């Protein structure tokens, strides 16, 4: 009997299939959120989840997402981005432009000690699949980054065009906020920034060094600040070094900052945030992050679910301003099924 070797292409497909986004069924969620006026955790059951969670019917269909995802491989960064656009995962010119400006290959870790890592990373930096970056963490597949940014973008546009300044003048800020941002600037928090890739892409979207006139025909966003936080020292260093390769200007202009911090606690110093992206799965929705959202419509995109199991990606919008958590202060939208590495706790 002849035994055929398993091809590299098959290994890549099998690895990617394990992370395939799954379509979600209405009202089948168990999203843990904090109860009103209490710091303990509440696990909402499917019996009352319909009071909290809406099912996405306006965002990209999970079925369409599954068809386009995992196929957007490229030989170059541009080819990868063009395929994401052809698959309608990247839809907006703002997201496409930012993806084109940031070369994903600068944010992958090449471990030359094993052949398999050379095959999957060094030879395929633009593969549409998650890649390990060390310390038990991964960089998400490009289509998941694109999907998250397309969910965040409408809120950034809203704050950039609203009569109310992006800085949220007249709204309550975090008690520990230094409010160092200039009036009208956007504030974005990237929790679990890993190798720094999405932090950099977000930075290109709100680059302070580019004036509105310099943005061409693309509708401009307000300039702003992106804060990438990571709890693992080695990943903080990795993220900073990766950004320095070709995106040092984002540091020089104070558009991007990378800080060691506990993702569960967020970064209250610079709150409130117009958008928060969480790149790792939380077993429960972190109250601290929810309360750091801008009260006039700040949103958070976050995967929630058990460690090692299937999770759901949610978009959480803060719609009211209260000093303590109230269930009615947030609009929770279920997007699609995902699988992420866990959001690490810390003693910080």
TrEMBL record:
Biological process, per Gene Ontology: methylation
Listed Pfam families: PCMT
Enzyme class, spelled out: transferase
Stretches with biased composition (Polar residues): 171-181
Family, as annotated: Belongs to the methyltransferase superfamily. L-isoaspartyl/D-aspartyl protein methyltransferase family.
Alphabetical list of PROSITE patterns matching this protein: PCMT
Subcellular location(s) of the protein: Cytoplasm
The protein, known as: protein-L-isoaspartate(D-aspartate) O-methyltransferase
Range of residues in the leader sequence: 1-26
Primary location class: cytoplasm
GO molecular function, one term: protein-L-isoaspartate (D-aspartate) O-methyltransferase activity
Keyword annotations of the record: Cytoplasm, Methyltransferase, S-adenosyl-L-methionine, Signal, Transferase
Species classification: Eukaryota, Sar, Stramenopiles, Ochrophyta, Bacillariophyta
Residue numbers spanned by region Disordered: 163-182
The keyword Lipoprotein belongs to this UniProt entry's keyword annotation: no
Enzyme Commission designation: 2.1.1.77
GO cellular component terms, semicolon-separated: cytoplasm
